Amino acid sequence: MAEIDAAISVRGVCKDFDGFEVLRDIDLDLAPGTTTCILGPSGSGKSTFLRCLNWLEEPSAGSIRIDGTLIGRSGEGKAARPMARRELARARTSIAMVFQHFALWPHLTVLGNVIEAPVHVVGRPRRQAEEEGRAILARVGLAEKADAYPHTLSGGQKQRVAISRALAMKPKVILFDEPTSALDPEMVGEVLGVIRELAKEGLTMVVVTHEMGFARDVADTIVFMDGGRIREVATPTAFFTNPQSDRAQRFIRRHG
Amino acid sequence: MTWPALRTILDGAVVTAALAAVSILLSLPLGLLLALLRWRRIPMVAGVLAAFVSVVRATPFVTLVLFVFFILPSAGLELEPVPAAILALTLNTAAFSSEIWRSALQTFPRDQLEAATAFGLSERATFTRIVFPQIWRANLGPLVSEVTILLKCTPAVAVIGVVEITRAAGRVGAETYEPLPPFLVATLIYTALIATLVRGQRVVERRIARRFGWVRP
Is residue B67 in a domain? Predict the structure, then answer.
């Protein structure tokens, strides 16, 4: 796949925290309209890698392009220079994120959370944003909660609001950082169901998850990480039936 | 007590209320500004501000008033008694309230800030849209309590000749040789002023609770 066609293109990304290497030399291309699940044991660097994609963590080296546009630094190699804050903020509007612990803004209503960035960052007219926001909430089954405050919702509902907030940006890519890990077991299904629907609609999504069944059913690509490196990139069938590396075999035996 | 005597005390009450009102309006935003500057951890600035806050907090208020009125002129800042009183009150309450703002900023949930960053909110928008609307509500109690302390500090400005409630009551008492009635009146006025503040706090808190459904424990 040519680099320029990739929705997400990662080259040589490294990250260390105080000399401790968390990510080592990561290359990855993800096609537009596909769902990628990142799997791996705890501490393998999956979340850190995801957070590098929208520059919440700044990689120590390497480059990241979203839909062909560089994120975080302007220019490559020796000419690389940190992006101006405003430029970075603008770049981030095309990469939405869903967090493990929802990270909703509690002083805003559900609809307020959904339209906050479209109105105050993108500059969409409020009325249009509200209409779109209500339509998105209806899609995730929360139409009647638009005017409620987040603290009145269940965990599963909060996460669906967070997904709506991401969708409202009309992003090129949505990043999910363990979207069901903080949920009670009976609420995992409703959130995965929503993500599954989005996958069918052809959004480009990257999901860090521990839900093996979900990864097997929904992902177009499995990325397996361990020790800060990508060990395997494969289709779910290939990964789950015929893992190439010892580490992946052990991982599947333990979790699959 | 005669009517002119009562008038004297009421005039003092107007002075006290005006001093307090102006100082509140100046000191709370200034305290927030100090806290924000320290939050940014700008190397030199943070240290200087921390030192300023520590010194003001450690200085007895009367001493601070005398300092502003008698020492600042030698640094080129000569103020009439009332502006000097306002400056002293403002510095004092700014220093104390900045600690309230600072702890509010420090304990603000990181994930909310991260979400704001991830969705492209600028630093300014993150503060005005996400942080400030939450921290002022959450800290209304401590802030109002700081303001009542400010009100109770106001008699100290009598040392530079500002005639506020207590000073006025003292004068009336000295002239009539009956100190009890004027000080009773003074106490009533202080109580009314503070009751107004606390009542205002309750009204706002109730409105917040009604809107957001937060039930206070």
Answer: yes
DSSP character at residue A153:
S
Q: Is residue B78 part of a domain?
A: yes
| Residue A35 CB contacts under 8 Å (≥ 6 apart), including other chains | A199, A203, A204, A205, A206, A207, A218, A219, A220, A221
Q: Tell if the CB–CB gap between A117 and B117 is shorter than 8 Å.
A: no
The answer for residues whose C-beta is within 8 angstroms of residue A223's C-beta and 6 or more apart is A28, A36, A37, A38, A39, A230, A232, A233
CB of A235 within 8 A of CB of A221?
Answer: yes
Q: Residue count of chain B, please give it.
A: 217
pLDDT at residue B215 greater than cutoff 60? no
**Residue B107 within any structural domain of the chain:** yes
Per-residue pLDDT tens over the stretch B154-170:
999 999 999 999 999 99
CA distance A78 to chain B (A): 27
Amino acid at position A246, single letter = D
pLDDT at A3 over 70: no
Total count of domains within chain B: 1
Residues B108-146 as b/e (b if ≥16 CB within 10 A, e otherwise) read eeeebbebbbbbbbbeebbbebbbbebbbbbbbebbbbb
The ipTM estimated for the assembled molecules is 0.93
* Owning domain of residue B126: 3-209
The DSSP string of A75-90 is SSGGG-EEPPHHHHHH
* 8 Å CB contact of A56 and B117: yes
In angstroms, what CA-CA distances link B66 with A31, A205, A225, B169? Answer: 72, 65, 67, 22
Give the closest-approach CA distance of B54 to chain A in angstroms.
33
Segments making up each domain of chain A, as ranges: 106-170
- For residue B159, what is the domain's CATH number? 1.10.3720.10
The tokens for B14 are: 């107007």
